[in-house]
Amino acid sequence: MGILAANIFSMGQPFTAYMYPEAFTTGHSDAEDWMWAAQLVLIDGKMRGLFTILFGAGLYLFMEKAWGKGASRWLQVKRLLWLGAFGLIHFYLIWRGDILFSYAVSGFIAVLLFINVSARNQLILGILGYIAGGIFYAIGMIFMQVTADGPEPDSAAMNQVRSEFIKAAETDLADGRAETAIRQEGTYLQFVSHTIDEHGTDPLVNVWLVVFETLPLMLIGMALYRLGLFGGGWNPRSQRLWGWVGLAVGGALTTIIALRTMDGGFTYYGVLAAFLGWSHFPRLLMTLGLAALLALYVPRAGNWIGDRISAAGRTAFTNYIGTSLVMLMVFGNWGFDLFGQLGRGELYLVVFAAWIAMLAWSQPWLVRFRYGPLEWLWRCLTYGKVFALRQ
C-alpha cells in the first residue's frame, strides 16, 4: 500500500515526475509543493525500505522452512530466478518502475553468500554496506547538484561536465514528453516499443543500486527477523523508544532537506540530490523506526482492519503486479485515458481508491483460497508441481 503511494506519480505522470515536480504536465501548485515535501519526509524511500527489509526477513523465513524439509538454498535460488522473470515481464510489458528484478539479484547474492552468516554479522554487514552506499550517493549526487546548479565553472573541463549534466536532464525530460504523447495518443504496442527501445538495458544498469541499498537492507531484514524484532522478542519499552527516536530524528533531518530543496526552487539536480544524496542516512533511521513501531502497533489478527491488512500483505505479490496492471488501464488511452491529466492531490485520491480495493478483495479471497493468484503461481513454479489452491 505504501509502495503505491510512492509510485503513483510515475504511473499517472511522466516517469521523471516521481522526483521532479516540474515534470508534471498539469503544473505544480504551492499546495502541491508542500505535498511534495510531506511525501519526501513520510513516504519516499521509507516504503521501499520497509518492503526491502521485509523481503529480507521473508528470504530467511523461507529458508528456515526449506531446511526443515531437507531442502537446500538452491530451492530459494530457483524461486528468485522465477521472481526475476516476473520482474522483467513487469518492466517491459506493464511498468518500468519494477523493483522485482533488483530484488531477485539482491536475494540471489544474499542467499549464496550471506544466508549462513550469524545474525549479528548480517546486521553489521548490512549497516556497513548501507553506509558505503550513502557515501557513494552523497559524493555523486551532491557533485552533480553543485556542478549543474552552482556558479559557472572557471575551467573548460568543468564547463564541459556541466554541459553534459544539463544535457542529461533535458534528455530525461524529453523522454517524459515522448512517454506522455504515447500514453495519450499512441497504442499499447508503441508504449512497449518505447520501453524496449529507450530503456531496454535499464534493469541491468539499475542493478548497481543493489550493492548500495537493496542488498544491505535485505541483510538488515534477515538479521532483524532472526533477532526477534517481528516476533515480540524485544523489550517493548526499548523497541518503542528506539522506534520513536529513529522516526523523530530521521524525520527532522529529512524535513530540513525538503525545506532547503524547496527554497532552492526545485532544480532537477537539487531534487535528485535530495532523494539520493542527502536523505540516504535519515531514510534508514526512519525505516528502522517505522519497522520497530509497526511491529508493536499494527492491529492483530481478530481485529477487522488487522485481518484485512494482513491479507493484503499475504497477497503482496498479486497486489503489487495487479496494481501496476490496473494503473496501466486507468492512465493509458487504451483504458480510461487519464495519463498526465491528474495533479498530485488527485493522484492521492487514486491511491486511496486502490487501497480500498486491496483491503476489499484480499481477505475474502484468502477465506476461500490458500494463496493469492500470483503467490500460488510463483509457488508452483518454484516447486515444479501444482498445489491445491482452494482451502
SSE diagram, text form:
Blueprint: H1 2-7, H2 9-12, H3 30-42, H4 46-68, H5 73-93, H6 100-114, H7 119-149, H8 156-185, H9 188-199, H10 202-205, H11 208-226, H12 236-263, H13 268-278, H14 280-297, H15 304-314, H16 316-331, H17 344-368, H18 373-383
Helix pairs in contact: 3-12, 4-11, 4-14, 5-6, 5-18, 6-11, 7-11, 7-13, 8-9, 12-13, 12-14, 15-17
Domain DUF418: 224-385
Keywords: Membrane, Transmembrane, Transmembrane helix
InterPro entries: Bact_Transport_Assoc, DUF418
Shape: globular
Number of structural units classed as domains: 1
For the record, give the distance between the C-alpha atoms at the N and C termini, rounded to a whole number: 26 Å
Largest sheet: none
Strand content: under 5%
Number of strands: 0
Rg over C-alpha atoms, rounded to the nearest angstrom = 21 Å
Tally the helices.
Answer: 18
Poorly predicted segments: none
Mean pLDDT: 95
List the secondary-structure elements in sequence, H or E: HHHHHHHHHHHHHHHHHH
Percent helix range: over 70%
Domain DUF418: 224-385
Organism: Qipengyuania vulgaris
Transmembrane segments: 49-67, 79-95, 101-117, 124-144, 207-229, 241-262, 268-296, 317-336, 348-367
Keywords: Membrane, Transmembrane, Transmembrane helix
